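Incident log, structure service

09:12 report received: a user says their structure output differs between two submissions of the same chain.
09:20 pulled the input from the user's history:
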Amino acid sequence: MTASARLAELGIVLPEVVPPLAAYVPATQVGDFVYTSGQLPMRDGELVAQGKVSENREGIVHLEDAQFAARQCALNALAAIHSLVGIDSVKRIVKVTGYVASAPGFSNQAQVLNGASLLLGEVFGDAGVHVRSAVGVAELPLGAPVEVELTVQV
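09:34 re-ran on a clean worker, output below:
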């Protein structure tokens, strides 16, 4: 099954490409690989969540919301890939790199990034299995809780 058919089966419509916030492009191809810029959890021009991630503090983005935000980041990265080469040209997801704006003491960055990884597995099956880095950081652009970039083989 193609990625576009699987997206349709899952009821997922890829969003519009998020316009760059500075001097860069959303995705670029080098040989058989496409690299995306870091994607924020934007939907319809707004962040789906804002703030630092923590599991036990009020006024903070909780784990489940951060996972949803990571999923949105992955959708935005797929949209950037689709706009460049077409989603059905993706042979496999190679690497996911994610940055999590973490409150002091938060160490479940890997769980946050599962929001992106699980989506990629749903869409690409075995070709969605990838290597990954999940990094905790102090701040992200616009106060986003998570940022995700993809490397894919086409």
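09:41 both user submissions now match this output. Likely a transient worker issue. Closing.
09:42 reviewer note: The longest helix spans residues 63-85. The chain is about 30% helix and 25% strand.
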